Amino acid sequence: MTLNTSKREEVARRRLWVGRLRARGLTMREIVEYLPQLREAIVRRDGSAYSLGTIHGDCKALDKEWHDFAIQAIDEHKKRLLSEINEVKRRAHEAKDLRAVLAAMQQEASLLGTDAPRKIAPTNPTGESEYHPVDYSKLASLSAEQLAALAGAAKALTEGD
User: Which of 106, 75, 80, 79 is CA-nearest to residue 92?
Assistant: First the structure.
């Protein structure tokens, strides 16, 4: 279903204001209440306020539009970076600077996500030592006193937060 020009303009004007108000942090309910109070009162043709459902639909459409714009901006930025990296590689080849060529290739692979995955060793939450998962089979061999001491230590740790 296509909208006629006046309906499209009405939707565009309303979404402009909905987008502005969302950017200011207003909730959808607050937007429903705010639109009729504007100097240029954003209301239905019959003068009634737009429903929460209409504003929700506007927000979904705006979120998709903003997301698509962000993706496009990222793609454009990557294209610019790739062209700059290619120029660096070209000049490095001309200068016979192997280190610069390799560095540019590494940047290109990183940008495109084609470099080899890195293995990262897990650490404890502080990052200071290697992480060792709990071996629950060892708990069965603990005495009642040892279990009580562990429970007390755990309680003390959680109460400290």
Answer: 106
- CA 15/CA 35 separation, integer angstroms: 11
Question: Tokens for 145?
Answer: 């006193």
In degrees, to the nearest 5, what angle opens at C-alpha 62 toward C-alphas 57 and 66?
A: 155
Identify the pLDDT of residue 160: 62
123 - beta bridge partners?
Answer: 130
Report pLDDT digits (tens) over 19-77. 999 999 999 999 999 999 988 888 888 889 999 999 999 999 999 999 999 999 999 99
Backbone Cα Rg of the chain? 29
| Global pTM exceeds 0.85 | no
147, part of any domain: no
Structural domain total, the chain? 1
In a domain, 11, yes or no: yes
Residue 123 φ/ψ, nearest 5 degrees = -125, 175
- The amino acid present at 159, given as its one-letter code, is E
User: What pLDDT sits at residue 159?
Assistant: 77
Residue 12 lies in a domain: yes
- Residue 37: both structure tokens together: 């109070």
